[in-house]
Amino acid sequence: MSDDCINKILLLGDSTVGKTCFLLRYCDKRFQEAHLSTIGLDYRLKSMTLKNGKNIKLQIWDTAGQDRFRAITKNYYKGANGIILIYDVTNLQSYENVKNWISQIKEEANPNVLIYLAGNKIDVGEEERVVKTEEGQKIADELNLPFYETSAKNGVNVNEIFEDILEKIDEVYSKIEVSKTEGKNK
Q1: Which of 69, 55, 51, 59 shows the shortest CA–CA distance to 168?
Q2: How far apart, in whole angstroms, are the C-alpha atoms of residue 144 and residue 77?
Q3: Bridge partners, 86 (sequence order)
Q4: Cα gap 99→131, rounded to integer Å
Q5: Which run of H or E residues covers position 135?
């Protein structure tokens, strides 16, 4: 990928899993306790430098998790380089819906899209937690996805998951560009 390329990252998952807070934590380095549900889509732009020195620009799309917005948000899957699929460790239904989200992603997104799984809200006490780390890791292994547990509230692993997915995107898409170039030169 060339310097200053734009990478599109989608944040997907059920309503109230913390996608907007995830976005605010990463882009603005802040947490907002109370906010309105996302209507359709919202996005932020961010620039960063990868470990290899490449400058990249990000479009990070925060999607509405409610069913009534699925038709709208599906239109944004195609151009995505990466997807962070988020569930809430205090909400069993959001965890159980991970496979449904994956089916939808496989159906709608480009085949090279990188998907990461994030179990969010690990800042809660153990008494509120209903999805254990082992369960999150198990489904991630089953689906062959990188897995992080995160806290948008405290910032735990939010930067790390973005850095990891962006480094991997650069690696994967650079290989695709090289193979396209080699194909044209034959």
Answers
A1: 51
A2: 19
A3: 118
A4: 15
A5: helix 133-143
**Percent of residues in the chain assigned helix, strand, coil, to nearest 5:** 40, 25, 35
Tokens of 86: 């988020």
How confident is the model over 20-64, as pLDDT tens digits?
999 999 999 988 775 545 444 567 899 989 999 999 999 999 876
Distances in Å between the Cα of 14 and the Cα atoms of 3, 44, 48, 93, 158 are: 34, 20, 28, 9, 18
Cβ count within 10 A of residue 129: 15
- Residue 145 burial class via C-beta count within 10 angstroms: exposed 0-12, middle 13-18, buried 19 and up: middle
Considering only CA atoms, which of 80, 78, 64 is closest in space to residue 6?
80
Helix/strand/coil for 86 = strand
Give me the amino acid identity at 160. Answer: E
Give yes or no for a contact between 130 and 89, defined as CB atoms under 8 angstroms apart: yes
- In three-state secondary structure terms, 143 is helix
Q: Hey, which of 39-43, 64-68, 157-161 has the most confident mean pLDDT? A: 157-161
- Residue 61: helix, strand or coil by DSSP? strand
- Pick from 156, 168, 170: nearest CA to 26: 156
Distance, in Å, from the CA atom of 140 to the CA atom of 128, rounded to the nearest integer, reads 22
